[in-house]
Design a protein that fits this description.
This protein starts with a strand and ends in a 25-residue tail after the last helix. Strand 5 and strand 6 form a beta hairpin. The chain is built from 14 helices and 8 strands. With 383 residues, the chain is α+β, with helices and mostly antiparallel strands. The chain has a 4-stranded antiparallel sheet, with helices on both faces. It has a two-stranded antiparallel sheet with strand order 1-8. A two-stranded antiparallel ribbon has the order 5-6. The protein is globular, with a radius of gyration of 21 Å. Helix 1 crosses helix 11, helix 2 packs parallel to helix 11 and helix 3 runs parallel beside helix 7. The protein has one domain.
């Protein structure tokens, strides 16, 4: 891993990046164009009758249980400024930005984050307006309301939440770790925001609301942008979810990192080949957008986001195949840490990819044992 002066995406920027409208994400557009996210959940319930491994009532109940804290916290605390619970009288005196950065990371880890980074906010990564999906779940604003982070809150604390290697292997069956990690993200962001406000400073907790997580996480030194459109971290690959806190607490930002993702993704296209919806482009990067769901002006592999969402609807639950199949998705143990060095330093990447496939990494786990028979019956209206 190398610390660098500028994030690795910087050299691929071809023109000024304009702020993105949250109303144009696939989930927000899908709410307008056919209520697609709701249809996905309806199809999830239809799948329960088939008793297909990975899509049973037990799997369904598990992901909903995992999402519970996310739903409750998002509807009450995220996407809006946190107010102190007790301390309205005092503020930390003579704050030391370097020591405070260490303290914030210590508390974030204590609260439950797996990794933490700090960056100065790039205004280009703050959404222009609230979109349907985030409004529906957070109730923090109305669709179309403008988004402006207070000028004095010029710092963002980004947190990484690792998803289970084993559970990800279930996809496109229900992999419920996405949902439990969103709940952990909601818990961590809101709790860290409370810590900051009790120090006498301002804090705005968020998971998916308000801005583009991956770009800010790259700026905070947590990883790089991959071909699959995901944040690729050093320890967990793309197997992560993100949360954040905007604040005016004086903090020393972290340096971006180079872990070799850009050259590795140029050599590898497993996510492209295995994507069931053909949403991830093959070939060279482009700075053009497919439609309003992409931001033009940066050479990358822009995802066809609505095609991805349409597959989710058909599948009956969200899909993580591009995470499962990625060679960076490995257990963070001694063996894989050693092999990871080949990817980081661009040593025989084609050979690394070949053996990754030969050894069976990235394959879906289809054989799932259930202690309880997952057959279902209809609930009688009289019950």
């Amino acid at each position: 891993m190398r610390f660098v002066k500028e994030p690795t995406y910087k050299k691929y920027i071809t023109k000024e990046l304009k702020r993105f409208d949250d109303r144009n994400t696939a989930l927000s557009r899908g709410a307008v164009e056919g209520n697609k996210y709701t249809k996905m959940h309806q199809n999830c319930l239809k799948n329960l009758q088939s008793i297909k491994p990975g899509k049973t009532i037990i799997d369904h109940a598990t992901w909903v249980a995992g999402a519970t804290v996310d739903y409750v916290v998002r509807a009450n605390l995220l996407g809006r400024e946190t107010k102190p619970i007790y301390n309205n009288e005092y503020r930390l005196k003579n704050p030391n930005p370097d020591e405070l950065a260490k303290l914030i990371k210590e508390k974030a880890h204590w609260i439950g984050a797996d990794d933490v980074g700090i960056a100065k906010i790039n205004p280009a990564y703050i959404y222009t307006h609230w979109g349907n999906q985030n409004v529906n779940y957070s109730h923090a604003a109305e669709v179309g309301d403008p988004i402006e982070i207070p000028t004095e809150c010029d710092t963002v604390i980004m947190m990484v939440h690792e998803m289970s290697y084993g559970v990800i292997q279930r996809s496109p069956g229900i992999e419920y770790d996405t949902d439990i990690e969103y709940s952990k993200g909601a818990w961590c962001a809101s709790s860290l925001a409370t810590f900051i406000t009790e120090l006498g400073y301002r804090a705005i907790p968020s998971v998916n609301e308000l801005g583009i997580n991956i770009a800010m996480a790259v700026d905070a030194g947590l990883g790089e942008l991959g071909r699959n459109g995901q944040l690729i971290t050093r320890d967990y690959g793309p197997r992560v979810r993100l949360s954040k806190v905007f604040t005016n607490l004086p903090l020393v930002p972290d340096k971006p990192i180079d872990i070799g993702v850009q050259k590795f993704c140029e050599a590898c296209a497993l996510c492209t080949r295995h994507c069931p919806s053909n949403s991830i482009p093959n070939g060279e990067r482009t700075d053009e957008a497919w439609n309003e769901q992409n931001v033009p002006g940066m050479l990358k592999w822009p995802a066809r986001a609505m095609k991805c969402l349409d597959w989710w609807v058909k599948n009956g639950n969200h899909c993580s195949i591009c995470i499962r199949i990625c060679p960076w998705n490995k257990p963070n143990d001694r063996l894989h840490k050693f092999v990871r060095l080949f990817a980081e330093y661009n040593i025989l990447p084609k050979l690394v990819i070949y053996f990754d496939q030969l050894l069976g990494y990235g394959k879906q786990v289809k054989q799932i044992h259930y202690a309880q028979n997952p057959e279902v019956e209809l609930i009688s209206p009289e019950e």
